[in-house]
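Input (structure):
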């Protein structure tokens, strides 16, 4: 009877020791797994309305977009994340600004080139979000990690999203 009493605590101790060793092994392996499987790069798309109604807002728009890119979207962006820029009014202008990769050491040049690109846009014609929505929906379906920022006057409603 005395042996039985000693056996149960001994078995419990052995089980606790095995669980502790297993958890210690997992704690060692988790940082290694995180290094071998880094998270996928995020994608960011800036969509800017270039209608005649946005013309009076263009300087503030340039400043805000430049500041956002300079700050890495207030610290949300990581090195390697991609940034695209589309503009639209009556038509969609996608792809004329080349896709860029964000990094802290390139943030000044990136913010400057986007600001310059927006400064050279003609703010004319009415806004027609219906030319934008189908392309955005297609992009959303094919992109697992995508953030879209839309800069618009807000006078025309978006439908279908």
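Output (sequence):
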């Amino acid at each position: 009877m005395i042996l039985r009493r000693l056996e149960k605590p001994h078995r419990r101790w052995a089980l606790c020791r095995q669980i502790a060793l297993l958890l210690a092994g997992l704690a060692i392996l988790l940082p290694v797994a995180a290094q071998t499987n880094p998270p996928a790069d995020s994608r960011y798309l800036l969509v800017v309305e270039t209608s005649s109604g946005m013309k009076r807002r263009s300087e503030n728009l340039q400043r805000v977009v430049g500041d956002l890119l300079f700050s890495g979207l207030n610290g949300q962006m990581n090195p390697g994340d991609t940034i695209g820029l589309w503009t639209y009014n009556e038509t969609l202008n996608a792809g004329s600004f080349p896709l860029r990769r964000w990094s802290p050491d390139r943030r000044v040049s990136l913010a400057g080139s986007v600001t310059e690109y927006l400064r050279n846009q003609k703010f004319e014609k009415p806004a027609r979000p219906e030319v934008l929505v189908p392309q955005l929906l297609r992009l959303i379906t094919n992109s697992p990690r995508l953030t879209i920022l839309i800069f618009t006057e807000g006078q025309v409603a978006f439908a279908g999203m």
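Notes: Residues 74 and 122 are 28 Å apart (CA to CA). The first helix runs from residue 2 to 36.
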